[in-house]
Automatic annotation (TrEMBL):
Residues 329-474 form the Asn/Gln amidotransferase domain. Belongs to the GatB/GatE family. GatB subfamily. It comes from the Bacteria. The gene is gatB. This is Aspartyl/glutamyl-tRNA(Asn/Gln) amidotransferase subunit B. It holds the Pfam family GatB_Yqey. Keywords: ATP-binding, Ligase, Nucleotide-binding, Protein biosynthesis, Transferase. It catalyses: L-aspartyl-tRNA(Asn) + L-glutamine + ATP + H2O = L-asparaginyl-tRNA(Asn) + L-glutamate + ADP + phosphate + 2 H(+); L-glutamyl-tRNA(Gln) + L-glutamine + ATP + H2O = L-glutaminyl-tRNA(Gln) + L-glutamate + ADP + phosphate + H(+). GO terms for biological process: translation.
Amino acid sequence: MAYETVIGLEIHVELDTKSKIFCSCSTEFGAKPNENTCPICTGLPGTLPVLNEEVVNLAIKAGNALNCDMNRINKFDRKNYFYPDLPKAYQISQFDLPICENGYVDIHVDGKNRRINLTRIHLEEDAGKLIHIEDEPVTLVDYNRCGVPLIEIVSEPDMRSAEEAVEFLKNLKAILEYAEVSDCRMEQGSLRCDANISVREVGQEALNTKVEIKNMNSFREILKAIQKEEKRQVELYTFGEGHKIKQETRKWDSSKGRTIPMRSKEDAHDYRYFPEPDLMPVIIAQDTIAKIKQNLPELPSKKKERFVTSYKLSEKEIDILIGKKILADYFEAVISFGADSKEAANWIIVDVLRALKEESNEEMPIKAQYLAGLIKIIDQGKISRTVGKEVFSELITTDQSPEEIVKQKGLSQISGMDQIEKIIVEIIGKNPQAVDDFKNGKAQAVGFLMGQTMKATNGKVNPKLAKEILENKLKEM
């Protein structure tokens, strides 16, 4: 029996505001526990929420970027549940009148284009964070995150594989970053994903029982979690135990490589939604929607079109560069300082990305003008590419220009014909066997002698000139 997977995602995205959705507390990440709190976001009796206008504007911006219809009249509702991370025992959210509906994100997987439809985008406040201490009978609560503004983006169950789900998430993340709606830092919880997964026989129209996997914030772990849950459900149906699949919430245990039951899945009526009595309906002027749409920054699809026509790069290089807004912006900044686009792309994709990974940082490790300067002095023959790698490493740890580093460390390339010829003669004299190999038709002998030349000069010799002189000397022998 052949089965197919049906996947829908619910994505929580923290909006890029300085203050919370209903109070003036800071949304800064990394503050001391419970430092960014007040009576409103901790739900003390007698407090009243006041809606942050910028939250609404960012939700409109997200809706425009994701091709949504706007509900000019929308409202907030109370979603009731008792849990330690939500001190007032209800969450202010949106139920039947969300701010955005419909919409879509296009993806490309396995050579095919797919359109993943969106059901809705609604506004809500975030909950606090529970900290479970290993081998201790207590759980700590940090309420700093309470009241941080969120949009929840709900997709249709249009994805048919874990790979499609991850590609959808990557595209969605890029769009939100480019639209300047959120920093989408998954490691900080700015973008978190719940996956609803079911399997059914190929050709079957009806949906089978779905399972929700909660709170994942890594593309790699999302991929593995969906694949494992897919396998678990297929095995149950294959061995006639499909009835054991219950509508429930599970969590992904990455250390054990499996999903684990958390609780039975609540339906909408379990939350006892009712209109939020302390907040008026949100009425948005058409002019506001149009103005925000008109001022949208360049989105990934448009940027890709421009990169294809403006720069001589491969599609793979362009996809890597525009995959992160910070990379695309950095690339164009390096270009603006006069660097060759192909060289800039190579250095960013290989060396800058490696440095970012090693530093576990979102900040560019080298100023754009310094990388551009490094590319130019290599192109001018002032240093070799090998020495350029050394200068690059220095640029990460110092605030000196590449020219200053080259001068200070004496790294300038040896380009004088007489000086190179003298070095080549010495290398040939020290390696008679390689010379004999060359005479006997072994072309690799030139490579060996070039390696010895580079080693003797610590990579400073001009490789093009050195190879030319070496070959001429060998032919004369």
